[in-house]
Amino acid sequence: MKQLKYIIIFSILLWSCNQSEEAEDDYGFADSFDAATVKIIPTDTPATAITIRVPEAIDEVHSSEIIEEVKYIPLETNKDALIGYYQKVIVYKGCIYILDCISAQAVLMYDMSGRFIKKLGTKGKGPEEFEGLAGMALDKKNNLLVLYDNLKREMKYYTLDGAFLFSKNVPYRFSGKYDILPSGTMVSATSKNHKNFHMGKWEEYRLLYSDTSGKMSGFGFGYNDNANISMAWSKIIPDGAGGLLYYPQYLNSLYTVTDKGIHAKYIFDCSRFSPFDQQKIPQFKSTEE
After folding, report:
1. Model pTM score
2. 3-state secondary structure string, the chain?
3. Residues 228-270: pLDDT tens digits?
4. For 53-72, how does the pLDDT look when each residue is reduced to its tens digit (9 = 90+)?
Protein backbone atom coordinates (compact mmCIF):
# COMPACT_ATOMS: atom_id res chain seq x y z
CA MET A 1 0.00 0.00 0.00
CA LYS A 2 2.89 2.34 0.89
CA GLN A 3 4.51 1.63 -2.47
CA LEU A 4 1.24 2.44 -4.23
CA LYS A 5 1.04 5.74 -2.32
CA TYR A 6 4.58 6.65 -3.40
CA ILE A 7 3.78 5.78 -7.03
CA ILE A 8 0.65 7.97 -6.96
CA ILE A 9 2.50 10.90 -5.38
CA PHE A 10 5.40 10.52 -7.82
CA SER A 11 2.94 10.42 -10.76
CA ILE A 12 1.19 13.58 -9.52
CA LEU A 13 4.54 15.36 -9.21
CA LEU A 14 5.48 14.37 -12.74
CA TRP A 15 2.08 15.49 -14.04
CA SER A 16 2.42 18.81 -12.21
CA CYS A 17 5.87 19.38 -13.70
CA ASN A 18 4.61 18.61 -17.19
CA GLN A 19 1.60 20.88 -16.72
CA SER A 20 3.86 23.65 -15.46
CA GLU A 21 6.22 23.32 -18.42
CA GLU A 22 3.33 23.19 -20.88
CA ALA A 23 1.66 26.23 -19.32
CA GLU A 24 4.90 28.21 -19.48
CA ASP A 25 5.41 27.16 -23.08
CA ASP A 26 1.86 27.82 -24.25
CA TYR A 27 1.37 31.11 -22.43
CA GLY A 28 4.80 32.56 -23.09
CA PHE A 29 3.37 34.53 -26.00
CA ALA A 30 1.32 36.93 -23.87
CA ASP A 31 4.38 38.06 -21.89
CA SER A 32 6.79 38.28 -24.82
CA PHE A 33 5.99 41.91 -25.67
CA ASP A 34 4.73 45.17 -24.23
CA ALA A 35 1.01 45.25 -25.05
CA ALA A 36 1.08 49.05 -25.07
CA THR A 37 3.41 49.05 -28.07
CA VAL A 38 1.41 46.54 -30.11
CA LYS A 39 -1.00 47.95 -32.69
CA ILE A 40 -3.89 46.47 -34.64
CA ILE A 41 -3.13 46.59 -38.37
CA PRO A 42 -6.18 47.88 -40.30
CA THR A 43 -7.81 45.48 -42.76
CA ASP A 44 -9.94 46.43 -45.76
CA THR A 45 -13.37 44.89 -46.11
CA PRO A 46 -13.85 42.50 -49.07
CA ALA A 47 -16.14 45.15 -50.61
CA THR A 48 -13.03 47.07 -51.70
CA ALA A 49 -11.65 44.11 -53.67
CA ILE A 50 -12.04 43.27 -57.34
CA THR A 51 -14.44 40.34 -57.72
CA ILE A 52 -13.43 37.74 -60.30
CA ARG A 53 -16.28 35.43 -61.21
CA VAL A 54 -15.06 31.95 -62.05
CA PRO A 55 -17.77 30.50 -64.31
CA GLU A 56 -16.71 26.87 -64.03
CA ALA A 57 -13.85 24.60 -63.02
CA ILE A 58 -10.99 24.79 -65.52
CA ASP A 59 -9.51 21.47 -66.61
CA GLU A 60 -6.54 22.85 -68.51
CA VAL A 61 -4.50 26.05 -68.47
CA HIS A 62 -1.73 26.64 -71.02
CA SER A 63 1.41 28.11 -69.45
CA SER A 64 1.90 30.35 -72.48
CA GLU A 65 -1.28 32.20 -71.49
CA ILE A 66 0.07 33.30 -68.11
CA ILE A 67 3.90 33.08 -68.32
CA GLU A 68 5.86 35.56 -70.43
CA GLU A 69 9.25 33.82 -70.33
CA VAL A 70 10.61 30.44 -69.30
CA LYS A 71 14.29 29.93 -68.49
CA TYR A 72 15.56 26.40 -67.98
CA ILE A 73 18.45 25.98 -65.51
CA PRO A 74 19.60 22.37 -64.98
CA LEU A 75 20.71 22.04 -61.36
CA GLU A 76 23.89 20.18 -60.54
CA THR A 77 23.23 16.78 -58.97
CA ASN A 78 25.59 15.11 -56.53
CA LYS A 79 25.27 13.26 -53.23
CA ASP A 80 25.11 16.54 -51.28
CA ALA A 81 22.64 18.23 -53.61
CA LEU A 82 19.68 15.86 -53.88
CA ILE A 83 16.23 17.48 -53.73
CA GLY A 84 13.24 15.29 -52.90
CA TYR A 85 10.64 18.03 -52.46
CA TYR A 86 10.65 21.79 -52.53
CA GLN A 87 8.46 24.07 -50.45
CA LYS A 88 9.87 27.42 -51.60
CA VAL A 89 12.34 28.85 -54.10
CA ILE A 90 14.03 32.26 -53.79
CA VAL A 91 16.13 33.77 -56.59
CA TYR A 92 18.14 36.77 -55.41
CA LYS A 93 21.45 38.45 -56.26
CA GLY A 94 22.76 35.64 -58.43
CA CYS A 95 21.77 32.79 -56.10
CA ILE A 96 18.97 30.24 -56.05
CA TYR A 97 17.81 29.09 -52.61
CA ILE A 98 15.63 25.94 -52.51
CA LEU A 99 13.81 24.92 -49.33
CA ASP A 100 13.34 21.15 -48.91
CA CYS A 101 11.78 20.48 -45.51
CA ILE A 102 10.98 16.81 -46.14
CA SER A 103 13.76 14.97 -47.96
CA ALA A 104 16.97 17.02 -47.67
CA GLN A 105 15.62 18.84 -44.57
CA ALA A 106 17.84 21.74 -45.54
CA VAL A 107 18.20 24.70 -47.88
CA LEU A 108 20.25 24.08 -51.01
CA MET A 109 22.11 26.94 -52.72
CA TYR A 110 22.92 27.18 -56.44
CA ASP A 111 24.31 29.89 -58.69
CA MET A 112 22.40 31.06 -61.76
CA SER A 113 24.12 28.49 -63.96
CA GLY A 114 22.82 25.68 -61.73
CA ARG A 115 26.15 24.95 -60.04
CA PHE A 116 25.68 23.62 -56.52
CA ILE A 117 27.20 25.96 -53.92
CA LYS A 118 26.35 24.52 -50.51
CA LYS A 119 23.76 22.96 -48.27
CA LEU A 120 22.51 24.89 -45.25
CA GLY A 121 21.73 22.76 -42.24
CA THR A 122 21.58 19.08 -41.34
CA LYS A 123 19.25 17.03 -39.15
CA GLY A 124 20.12 17.17 -35.46
CA LYS A 125 19.98 19.06 -32.18
CA GLY A 126 23.13 21.17 -32.58
CA PRO A 127 23.19 24.98 -32.99
CA GLU A 128 23.45 24.80 -36.78
CA GLU A 129 21.19 21.74 -37.12
CA PHE A 130 17.43 21.43 -37.69
CA GLU A 131 14.92 19.26 -35.87
CA GLY A 132 11.98 20.46 -37.95
CA LEU A 133 12.86 22.90 -40.73
CA ALA A 134 9.60 24.59 -41.75
CA GLY A 135 10.22 27.94 -43.44
CA MET A 136 12.53 30.29 -45.32
CA ALA A 137 12.42 34.02 -46.02
CA LEU A 138 14.74 36.72 -47.26
CA ASP A 139 15.41 39.82 -45.17
CA LYS A 140 16.47 42.26 -47.89
CA LYS A 141 16.91 45.14 -45.46
CA ASN A 142 19.64 43.32 -43.51
CA ASN A 143 20.80 40.95 -46.29
CA LEU A 144 19.95 37.83 -44.31
CA LEU A 145 18.40 34.48 -45.07
CA VAL A 146 16.05 33.62 -42.18
CA LEU A 147 15.09 29.96 -41.62
CA TYR A 148 12.56 28.63 -39.11
CA ASP A 149 12.83 25.42 -37.06
CA ASN A 150 9.29 24.50 -35.99
CA LEU A 151 10.31 21.87 -33.40
CA LYS A 152 12.98 24.00 -31.75
CA ARG A 153 10.77 27.07 -32.26
CA GLU A 154 13.71 29.18 -33.30
CA MET A 155 14.86 31.32 -36.19
CA LYS A 156 18.26 30.68 -37.72
CA TYR A 157 20.10 33.48 -39.49
CA TYR A 158 22.48 33.11 -42.42
CA THR A 159 24.38 35.48 -44.67
CA LEU A 160 23.36 35.48 -48.33
CA ASP A 161 26.54 33.44 -48.93
CA GLY A 162 25.16 30.73 -46.67
CA ALA A 163 27.30 31.31 -43.58
CA PHE A 164 25.51 30.53 -40.32
CA LEU A 165 25.36 33.49 -37.92
CA PHE A 166 23.13 32.73 -34.90
CA SER A 167 19.76 31.42 -33.68
CA LYS A 168 16.97 33.04 -31.67
CA ASN A 169 13.98 31.48 -29.93
CA VAL A 170 10.53 32.54 -31.17
CA PRO A 171 8.07 33.13 -28.28
CA TYR A 172 4.92 32.08 -30.14
CA ARG A 173 3.56 29.32 -32.34
CA PHE A 174 2.93 29.53 -36.08
CA SER A 175 2.98 27.19 -39.05
CA GLY A 176 6.20 28.37 -40.67
CA LYS A 177 4.26 30.40 -43.24
CA TYR A 178 5.94 33.80 -43.11
CA ASP A 179 7.78 36.35 -45.16
CA ILE A 180 9.58 39.65 -44.61
CA LEU A 181 8.58 43.10 -45.83
CA PRO A 182 11.22 45.51 -47.27
CA SER A 183 11.16 47.35 -43.92
CA GLY A 184 12.45 44.21 -42.18
CA THR A 185 9.08 43.47 -40.53
CA MET A 186 8.23 39.78 -40.49
CA VAL A 187 4.60 38.79 -41.12
CA SER A 188 3.57 35.31 -39.97
CA ALA A 189 0.33 33.46 -40.69
CA THR A 190 -1.27 31.56 -37.86
CA SER A 191 -4.61 29.79 -37.42
CA LYS A 192 -7.21 29.12 -34.78
CA ASN A 193 -6.15 25.83 -33.24
CA HIS A 194 -5.68 24.14 -29.89
CA LYS A 195 -2.00 25.13 -29.84
CA ASN A 196 -2.76 28.83 -30.06
CA PHE A 197 -4.84 29.41 -26.94
CA HIS A 198 -1.76 31.14 -25.51
CA MET A 199 -2.58 34.15 -27.72
CA GLY A 200 -5.25 35.21 -25.24
CA LYS A 201 -7.31 38.20 -26.37
CA TRP A 202 -5.38 38.36 -29.66
CA GLU A 203 -6.45 34.86 -30.76
CA GLU A 204 -8.88 36.22 -33.36
CA TYR A 205 -6.04 37.63 -35.48
CA ARG A 206 -4.42 35.54 -38.21
CA LEU A 207 -1.46 37.74 -39.18
CA LEU A 208 1.30 38.47 -36.67
CA TYR A 209 3.68 41.39 -37.22
CA SER A 210 7.08 41.17 -35.53
CA ASP A 211 10.78 41.59 -36.09
CA THR A 212 12.65 38.49 -37.23
CA SER A 213 13.38 37.48 -33.65
CA GLY A 214 9.65 37.27 -32.83
CA LYS A 215 9.32 40.56 -30.92
CA MET A 216 5.68 41.41 -31.55
CA SER A 217 4.64 44.78 -32.99
CA GLY A 218 1.13 44.19 -34.33
CA PHE A 219 -1.80 41.94 -35.19
CA GLY A 220 -4.03 41.96 -38.24
CA PHE A 221 -6.78 40.19 -40.14
CA GLY A 222 -9.40 39.15 -37.63
CA TYR A 223 -11.00 35.95 -38.91
CA ASN A 224 -12.93 33.15 -37.26
CA ASP A 225 -11.58 30.02 -38.91
CA ASN A 226 -11.97 26.57 -37.38
CA ALA A 227 -9.88 25.12 -34.56
CA ASN A 228 -11.05 21.56 -35.27
CA ILE A 229 -9.99 21.12 -38.88
CA SER A 230 -6.79 21.72 -40.84
CA MET A 231 -7.70 21.09 -44.46
CA ALA A 232 -5.51 23.90 -45.81
CA TRP A 233 -2.83 26.33 -44.71
CA SER A 234 -2.78 30.07 -45.25
CA LYS A 235 -0.04 31.31 -47.55
CA ILE A 236 2.15 34.42 -47.50
CA ILE A 237 4.25 35.13 -50.60
CA PRO A 238 6.02 38.19 -52.10
CA ASP A 239 3.84 40.10 -54.57
CA GLY A 240 6.77 41.26 -56.72
CA ALA A 241 6.15 44.92 -55.90
CA GLY A 242 7.68 45.19 -52.43
CA GLY A 243 4.67 43.90 -50.55
CA LEU A 244 3.30 40.50 -49.64
CA LEU A 245 0.24 38.53 -50.72
CA TYR A 246 -1.87 36.70 -48.14
CA TYR A 247 -4.22 33.84 -48.95
CA PRO A 248 -6.41 33.00 -45.90
CA GLN A 249 -7.33 29.34 -45.56
CA TYR A 250 -10.89 28.50 -46.63
CA LEU A 251 -11.46 31.94 -48.19
CA ASN A 252 -11.45 32.57 -51.95
CA SER A 253 -9.63 35.87 -51.58
CA LEU A 254 -6.21 37.51 -51.85
CA TYR A 255 -4.91 40.40 -49.75
CA THR A 256 -1.93 42.71 -50.18
CA VAL A 257 0.00 43.01 -46.92
CA THR A 258 2.09 46.09 -46.12
CA ASP A 259 3.42 47.72 -42.95
CA LYS A 260 0.45 50.08 -42.88
CA GLY A 261 -2.44 47.78 -43.68
CA ILE A 262 -3.96 44.64 -45.15
CA HIS A 263 -5.76 45.46 -48.37
CA ALA A 264 -8.37 43.30 -50.08
CA LYS A 265 -7.15 42.71 -53.64
CA TYR A 266 -9.21 39.96 -55.27
CA ILE A 267 -12.31 37.96 -54.37
CA PHE A 268 -12.84 34.83 -56.45
CA ASP A 269 -16.50 33.97 -56.90
CA CYS A 270 -16.51 30.19 -57.24
CA SER A 271 -20.15 29.78 -56.24
CA ARG A 272 -21.05 27.91 -59.44
CA PHE A 273 -18.92 24.91 -58.60
CA SER A 274 -17.37 25.24 -55.13
CA PRO A 275 -18.37 22.38 -52.78
CA PHE A 276 -17.91 24.55 -49.68
CA ASP A 277 -20.45 26.68 -47.91
CA GLN A 278 -17.95 29.03 -46.29
CA GLN A 279 -20.46 30.19 -43.68
CA LYS A 280 -20.47 26.67 -42.25
CA ILE A 281 -16.68 26.22 -42.01
CA PRO A 282 -16.41 27.53 -38.40
CA GLN A 283 -19.19 25.15 -37.30
CA PHE A 284 -17.51 21.86 -38.25
CA LYS A 285 -16.49 19.71 -35.31
CA SER A 286 -13.91 17.60 -37.12
CA THR A 287 -12.02 17.17 -40.39
CA GLU A 288 -14.21 14.14 -41.20
CA GLU A 289 -17.37 16.21 -40.89
Report:
1. 0.81
2. CHHHHHHHHHHHHHHHHHHHHHHHHHHHHHHCCCHHHCEEECECCHHHCEEEECCCCCCCCCHHHCCCCCCCCCCCCCCCCCCCCCCEEEEECCEEEEEECCCCCEEEEEECCCCEEEEECCECCCCCCECCEEEEEEECCCCEEEEEECCCCEEEEEECCCCEEEEEECCCCCCCCEEECCCCCEEEECCCCCCCHHHHHHCCEEEEEECCCCCEEEEEEECCCCCCCCCCCCEEEECCCCCEEEECCCCCEEEEECCCCEEEEEEEECCCCCCCCHHHHHHCCCCCC
3. 776 567 889 888 887 899 998 888 889 999 999 999 999 988 8
4. 887 777 888 988 889 888 89
